[in-house]
């Protein structure tokens, strides 16, 4: 048409134009202003591991107290006790454990390291006392308890995990500083002989579940120390063969292996606990029957408030409740791995990695047994199941992780800056300044410091 300019032809696409367009389209979801970008920046902050450890462990403890109260009521009445008997004991253990966690979080790293040998010697002595008649006590066929009078008793094998973490971390850190870990004999000796000694004392009482966790902890320390795969594989093969022998020699352990994946009770009545745990999870559905409304805890499911509390959680809170528990443990594991991976202190690396391996391995063994994917090992869910002997060393280990998370230089600087701002804001509120004025003064001070 006259008087109009012809529209220029479309410019041919340049090489790489498609990739730029794709990148821009993806940046709408992964860019710095998106929710995912903000989440990634939040994970990179120096105090993120500290708050993840503190928050996830606190939520696990609170939810565990709620579920212990719900799952233990019928068991308590069956034994002629009050409804709140097990809950009161667990609450007492949580209060004591909170004190231990606070102390462990405030202790300097060098004092954690100094505890390694005294704690190991004390644990070895307690494990020997378990076998002394009149001192040791058998529970459910396992001679691994020491009675303290009344209804209070401790299980020394639970403290053996903490002792191995601290002692193994101190040992490997000293050998790394002397550049001795490139020789296989220094990797294995004396770490493996000491772990074998602890395993022997624990297995003498019949506690196969704790022995599995100690094995996992030993392999975790070897993995973090950089053991070559052939050495790691050889040690794993020896441990597997020894475990197979122990299982084959004890009939009830072999029966537990045969119950993996069972969905119905055989005619001989075996696999009852495993099957009832699956029934409890299946009965919960998506949202659960409701808190306190479990059917399986009315005598059908053995150990509902200890080893199988996860099954009662699934029945009462449903799939959403169990996924929430898994998410909390995943957050705790992520934070522990990040603390171990970002530090330059070899002791912190080994101790944080060992403690994280311990807690995560125990959680996997317990949950795997409830789901029917692993044999029932008789280990509690960390900080969730009933039991003070398991709770106290675990909370100390969590406090240790908090100490390590605070000890990073960037985290120390961030905590110091936050504490300084908090004190100045508190002073401003004390003398009556408005919040807007306090914020304006803070910004002016930051400009002057620049």
Automatic annotation (TrEMBL):
It is an enzyme of class 2 (transferase). Pathway: Cell wall biogenesis; peptidoglycan biosynthesis. Peptidoglycan polymerase that is essential for cell division. It comes from Streptacidiphilus cavernicola. Keywords: Cell cycle, Cell division, Cell membrane, Cell shape, Cell wall biogenesis/degradation, Glycosyltransferase, Membrane, Peptidoglycan synthesis, Transferase, Transmembrane, Transmembrane helix. Its main location: membrane. Its EC number is 2.4.99.28. It is found in: Cell membrane. Pfam families: FTSW_RODA_SPOVE (PF01098). This is Probable peptidoglycan glycosyltransferase FtsW. The chain crosses the membrane at residues 50-71, 83-103, 115-134, 184-202, 208-224, 231-250, 317-337, 358-377, 383-405. InterPro entries: Cell_cycle_FtsW-rel_CS, FtsW, FtsW/RodA. PANTHER family: CELL CYCLE PROTEIN, PEPTIDOGLYCAN GLYCOSYLTRANSFERASE FTSW-RELATED. Belongs to the SEDS family. FtsW subfamily. It is a multi-pass membrane protein. It comes from the Bacteria. It catalyses: [GlcNAc-(1->4)-Mur2Ac(oyl-L-Ala-gamma-D-Glu-L-Lys-D-Ala-D-Ala)](n)-di-trans,octa-cis-undecaprenyl diphosphate + beta-D-GlcNAc-(1->4)-Mur2Ac(oyl-L-Ala-gamma-D-Glu-L-Lys-D-Ala-D-Ala)-di-trans,octa-cis-undecaprenyl diphosphate = [GlcNAc-(1->4)-Mur2Ac(oyl-L-Ala-gamma-D-Glu-L-Lys-D-Ala-D-Ala)](n+1)-di-trans,octa-cis-undecaprenyl diphosphate + di-trans,octa-cis-undecaprenyl diphosphate + H(+).
């Amino acid at each position: 048409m006259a008087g109009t300019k012809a529209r220029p032809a479309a410019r041919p696409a340049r090489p790489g134009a498609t990739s730029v367009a794709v990148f821009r389209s993806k940046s709408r979801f992964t860019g710095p202003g998106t929710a995912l970008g903000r989440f990634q920046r939040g994970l990179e902050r120096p105090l993120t591991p500290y708050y993840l450890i503190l928050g996830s462990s606190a939520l696990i403890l609170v939810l565990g107290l709620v579920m212990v109260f719900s799952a233990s009521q019928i068991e308590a009445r069956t034994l002629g006790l009050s409804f709140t008997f097990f809950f009161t004991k667990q609450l007492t253990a949580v209060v004591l454990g909170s004190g231990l966690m606070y102390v462990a979080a405030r202790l300097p790293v060098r004092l954690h390291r100094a505890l390694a040998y005294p704690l190991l010697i004390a644990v070895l002595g307690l494990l020997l006392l378990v076998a002394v008649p009149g001192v040791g006590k058998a529970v459910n066929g396992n001679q691994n308890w020491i009675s303290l009078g009344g209804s209070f008793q401790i299980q020394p094998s639970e403290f053996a995990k903490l002792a191995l973490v601290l002692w193994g971390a101190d040992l490997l850190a000293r050998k790394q500083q002397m550049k001795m870990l490139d020789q296989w004999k220094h990797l294995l000796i004396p770490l493996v002989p000491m772990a074998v000694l602890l395993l022997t004392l624990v297995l003498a009482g019949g506690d196969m579940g704790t022995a599995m966790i100690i094995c996992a902890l030993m392999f975790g320390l070897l993995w973090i120390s950089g053991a070559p795969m052939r050495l790691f594989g050889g040690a794993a093969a020896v441990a597997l063969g020894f475990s197979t022998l122990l299982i084959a020699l004890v009939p009830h352990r072999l029966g537990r292996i045969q119950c993996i994946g069972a969905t119905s009770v055989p005619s001989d009545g075996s696999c009852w606990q495993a099957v009832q745990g699956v029934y409890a999870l299946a009965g919960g559905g998506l949202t659960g029957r409701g808190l306190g409304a479990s059917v399986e805890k009315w005598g059908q499911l053995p150990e509902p408030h200890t080893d199988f509390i996860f099954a009662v959680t699934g029945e009462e809170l449903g799939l959403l409740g169990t996924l929430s528990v898994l998410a909390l443990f995943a957050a705790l594991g992520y934070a522990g791995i990040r603390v171990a991976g970002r530090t330059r202190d070899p002791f912190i690396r080994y101790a944080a990695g060992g403690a994280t391996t311990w807690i995560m391995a125990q959680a996997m063994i317990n949950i795997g047994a409830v789901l029917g994917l692993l044999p029932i090992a008789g280990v509690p869910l960390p900080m969730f199941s009933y039991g003070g002997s398991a709770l106290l060393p675990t909370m100390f280990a969590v406090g240790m992780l908090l100490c390590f998370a605070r000890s990073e230089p960037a985290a120390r600087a961030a905590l110091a800056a936050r504490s300084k701002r908090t004190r100045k804001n508190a002073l401003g509120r004390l003398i009556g300044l408005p919040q807007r004025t306090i914020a304006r003064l803070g910004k002016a001070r930051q400009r002057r410091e620049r």
